[in-house]
Design goal:
The protein is of the alpha/beta class and about 350 residues long. It has helices spanning about 15-25, 70-75, 120-125, 135-155, 165-175, 215-225, 240-245, 260-270, 285-290, 305, 320-335, and strands at about 5, 30-35, 50, 85-90, 105-110, 160-165, 180-185, 205-210, 230-235, 250-255, 275, 295-300, 315.
Length: about 350
């Protein structure tokens, strides 16, 4: 049986990439097809046979794929999978839009229906992140998004079997694609991500995230600026500079080039994980809890499936820094989980 993997783009590291590494263990000979491949930004993929699309040759595409939104669907439709029996697409965007012959089984592990077109559409329209060109981009985005939404609905019907990473994503797939799916939660290495053998109660709080606008790391930065508590932020992304400009001396940025062993120590030695965005599921929340650390999360999305209020964490609502400050202050006073 010949298997191929398909992923939106191979240029970063996060929860989805951990899923790909597990699939690589199961199917070590399966090639990985993708729109673009940045070997420097995705060192985790060095053991894969990565096959990028024609977009790979376009200027800036490896790091800034978002400047070619109308070409990405064509990139995935251009691949030929005739020699494969099973295709597994792992996607939160366009990878599900591949074209296969009728005898080929296409399984989609859905991370979420394309976020910038559906559940996060308004946020992306309001925060295009093109700097000086934002006014022009905002004018162009609506017709482009309308075209991409039509394509995305068509592409969603090319899948033979859907699996969703959470009940939250399962509901979105039904809402936006009218597709039934089965929930299979992504794996967490609980033998590795586990409590420290030493009793450690760290003094710092922790954020582990890509630094992009919808993750709302700005809420954590603003809250900890006011609380004057130590905060460590692990991750990188387009928002890094603007977030650094907001911070004071109690907040440290460590980037994303940490080993898993280093990340484990930060989990084990923190006081709690701060989880301010609305996530599809949120593997970092599970990793932190596996290490015996509580999670302070926004009351929405995947966190509702991973955090037990009052036992493994607390929720704040609404999605504002003031609400996060209130919950943190209350938890610190009660000392029930912190």
């Amino acid at each position: 049986m010949k298997v191929a993997l398909v992923y939106d783009r191979v240029n970063k590291f996060g929860g989805a990439e951990r899923v790909l590494l597990v699939l690589h263990e199961i199917f070590p000979k399966a090639p990985l097809y993708t729109a673009v491949y940045d070997a420097k930004g995705a060192s985790w993929a060095k053991d894969f046979q990565v096959i990028p699309s024609f977009l790979q040759k376009f200027p800036l595409a490896k790091k800034h794929h978002e400047i070619y939104p109308w070409l990405t669907p064509l990139a995935f439709e251009s691949f030929n999978f005739d020699s494969f029996d099973v295709i597994i697409s792992i996607t939160s965007a366009e990878a599900k839009g591949i074209i296969t012959k009728p005898s080929t089984l296409h399984i989609c592990y859905c991370l979420t229906p394309t976020r910038y077109l559906w559940s996060g559409r308004q946020h992306y329209l309001s925060h295009p992140q093109y700097g000086f060109f934002n006014p022009l981009v905002k004018l162009l985005m609506k017709p482009i998004f309308s075209y991409l939404q039509r394509w995305d609905k068509i592409a969603s019907q090319r899948v033979d079997e859907y699996f969703a990473i959470s009940k939250n994503v399962q509901k979105r797939a039904q809402k936006y694609y009218k597709c039934q799916s089965t929930v299979i939660y992504p794996p967490v290495e609980t033998e590795f991500f586990c409590p420290s053998s030493k009793k450690v109660k760290g003094e710092y709080f922790l954020v582990v995230s890509r630094l992009v606008s919808y993750k709302r790391i700005d809420l954590a930065v603003k809250a900890f600026n006011k609380l004057k508590l130590p905060l460590v932020i692990i991750g990188d992304g387009t928002e890094k500079k603007s977030l650094e400009n907001l911070t004071r001396g109690n907040i440290k940025f460590l980037g994303q080039n940490l080993t898993d062993s280093q990340l484990l120590r930060y989990y084990q030695n923190c006081r709690a994980l701060i989880f301010p965005g609305e996530e599809d599921l949120g593997l970092v929340s599970l990793e932190a809890q596996a290490c015996g650390k509580p999670v302070i999360a926004y009351r929405a999305g995947g966190a509702l499936e991973t955090v037990i209020e009052g036992k493994t964490g607390e929720f704040f609502y609404p999605q504002k820094s003031e609400a996060l400050i209130k919950v943190l202050s209350s938890a610190l006073m009660r000392k029930n989980i912190l």
